[in-house]
Amino acid sequence: MNIYLVYTALGFYLVSTFIYALSLALNKTFLEKPGYYSIATGFVVHFASVVARYFEAGYTPITNIYESLSFLSLCIAGFFIYIRRIYRVHMIGCIIAPLVSLVVIMSLNFPYEIKPLVPALRSVWLPIHTILSFIGNSIFIVGFIVSLLYLVVEKEIKKKRSFFFSEKFPSLSTLDRINYRCMSLGFPFLTAGIITGSIWAGFAWGSYWKWDPKETWSLITWIVYAILFHNRLALGWRGKRTAYMMILGFLLIVFTFLGVNFLLKGSHTYI
Amino acid sequence: MKRQAIGIIGLNHNTAPLEIREKLYIKEGSIPELLAKIKREGINEAVVISTCNRTEIYYCGDDNDEMVRKVRRVLADAVAAKDDWFDRYMYIFTDEEAFRHLFLVASGLDSMVIGEPEIFGQVKEAYRIAASARTTGFFLNKTFHKSFNVAKRIRSETRIGYNPLSISSMAVELARRIFGNLDGKKILVVGAGEMCETALKYFQKEGLSDIFITNRTYQKAHKLADEIIGEARPFEALFELLTVVDVVLTSTGSDAPLIGLDMLHMAMKKRKNRPLFFIDIAVPRDVDPAVNDMDNVYLYDIDDLKELSQRHLSNRVKESEKAHVIIEEEATKFSDLLEKIDINPLIGHIMATADSIRSGEIKKTMARLANKDPELADTIDAMTRSIVNKLVHPYLALLKNNQDPAVFDTLKKLFQFEDDDENEMDSGDERV
Q1: Predicted pLDDT of residue A50
Q2: What residues in B contact A231, CB-CB < 8 Å?
Q3: Order of strands, edge to edge, in the sheet holding B54-61?
Q4: Which fold has domain B167-311?
Q5: Nearest-neighbour CA in chain A from B104: distance (Å)
Q6: Which of A151, B26, B178, B244 could cross-link B50 (Cys pair, CB 3.0–4.6 Å)?
Q7: Mean pLDDT calculated for residue range A203-229
Q8: Across the interface, do B273 and A158 touch by the CB < 8 Å criterion?
Q9: What is the pLDDT of residue A103?
Q10: B200 vs B286: CA distance, rounded Å
Q11: How many domains does chain A have?
Q12: Surface-to-core class of residue B163, CB atoms within 10 Å of its CB (0-12 exposed, 13-18 middle, 19+ buried)
């Protein structure tokens, strides 16, 4: 049942992608709205699928690669809707919609049958730790995209030759402000994710911190974002430098999320 | 009087890069001196137009080639122009080509931003400076007045003058790409010249209200600030201002950059790297070009804006074609008119005498007038012109339609015309 909802959501995401691409190609901004409504509908259906799966499986469905990627894409779509409502920014959906679609398609390549929950994950900390961490990660992914956009638009304005992106995407200040919001919202979630994970580890493994690769790499990621946070607030960093830091942070997140699972074996691999 | 050659030697944004234009820029204050030098070389009439985008010397005399040599010499001397610059960057136009070019310039068709209105005022000002330096005579008077007419005709008959693409509008558009919404953004204008005034009026129209004006001469800034809603600040406060404003438009006559890297590094630190956008429309430049490489600092100079304006050009091509047709028509008519002067030197002499009396009287009247409104000056100018034309017309008609030598002789005596004295016109001009 829940899988059909996921396919429906994917349909809306793809329609949204198509409309955004059209709006970009034809240079018609009025198409931005249908694109946005389409991704928003996709989000609602996608959210319903997660709820449905929760009831079908009897546990929070963030326990394997399929569920993780699916939940991640849901969070990205949700955070995008939040950003879009606050900043009234256009066209960032041109990147978010295909990204969300892609992550959903990727997730569907992994086994998605509901299996009984492994004993190690049977805990009240499962929903708390995973939801906090995934919201944090998705915020940083949006931050990464906004940072890339910032660098592209900044380059255009400095080089003064082509204005393809700067004509369509938000102004530098808006991108920088979104970037700042991503950082200041993502960081508490990341911190909370690590703390709850550590508490859970204390209960499950008998030790709050045992330098498991996942723990180590998420700590490294946390330090990078902490430095960024500090530099931004205390040293007045903004613009290009913060964009580079956000990109670095994102690469670390990707590595912590996927790389550690596939490359380094640790206690945190549940596939 | 004999028909004389009219010529131009000059360079503009199409033929020379900013670096060269900066070097050949002649400050308003130095123009009378340059004109005097040209006159000492034996060239009767000359006008110098020097703006950020062009430096042009208009001259009029007997021998075109000789004048070119002389003007080159004076120019090389005045601005230390290298010899090869003349071949690489400068153009020379003569007679019909020359006044066609002037018509293009005055109507803004030769401008970086096609159809921009500022240049019209700049050409008028250049002419005014030359007139008060007494280096304009019959031919350049006629040519420049004709160019004013042509410019006005083009403005009323084509849509080229209704031009949203002034420098200021491009500046605002760029600022939006950096800042997004400009509400509450602070703007600083450095300089109080005509360009600044135009830009300020545009900013105001766009609803930007936090405007600061600074200028080396504080009074000028103060006056400008009174005219629009803005705050004048002393020039010494420039650094302080750089730490608070968001957009800076500079257009001063300073020889050296006012804003350099060191100053800006400090300012950026103080403003916690909040972005700062410079539009430098001054030539020579007011802001060190290296500033554009700094993080969160954006600098557009006059050449960058030119590139931008060209992007918008295509939909204006039609209007500009219309304008070119008008210019062609006027140039041919004007050329014919000058030919007639050539055929009958006495007609030329009569017209020159009448016009020199007229311009002499205008100068006196204008000097007495408390109200220096340019519109009023234009009206007086047009009115006297038509009175003089109407008064002179019967004599000219008589001359043209009557081959009787007695009529010719009477008129010669009446207007004190001597056939062989080629400088007659000059002395006639200065008598008044």
Answers
A1: 92
A2: none
A3: B45-50, B54-61, B5-12, B91-94
A4: Rossmann fold (3.40.50)
A5: 28
A6: B26
A7: 88
A8: no
A9: 94
A10: 18
A11: 2
A12: buried
